[in-house]
Amino acid sequence: MDGETFIKTLVDEVLAQYLHGQEQICGCERCREKIAALTFDALAKNRYVTDQKNHPSRRVQGVDGQLKIEAIRELSKIAPGFKKTSCH
After folding, report:
1. For residue 13, is it within any domain?
2. Which of 6, 18, 75, 78 is deepest in the core (most CB within 10 A)?
């Protein structure tokens, strides 16, 4: 699994756990996709590097646990903007 797929999978898992019990946040497919995309973008920043030949490569910082903590932190900033009635 490459770094991008790993982070997307992690975001999906953490998002599902985060939304469970969060009744004030919309959990429709459209909002989940937007929240996941914004969280992925926040996590993916600064994880790209180039090698000596200027080819892009992926550097995933930290371990699974640290990335989960970062994902939860980003979700807690992003998700509250998706109230159940805000975009429907």
Report:
1. yes
2. 75
- What pLDDT, in 10s, does the model give residues 31-74? 999 999 999 998 877 555 445 565 555 554 445 677 788 889 99
State how many domains the chain has.
1
Q: Do the domain assignments include residue 38?
A: yes
Chain segment 1-18, per-residue pLDDT in tens: 566 777 888 899 999 999
Left, alpha or beta for 62 (phi > 0: left; psi -120 to 50: alpha)? left
Distance CA 22, CA 11 (A): 16
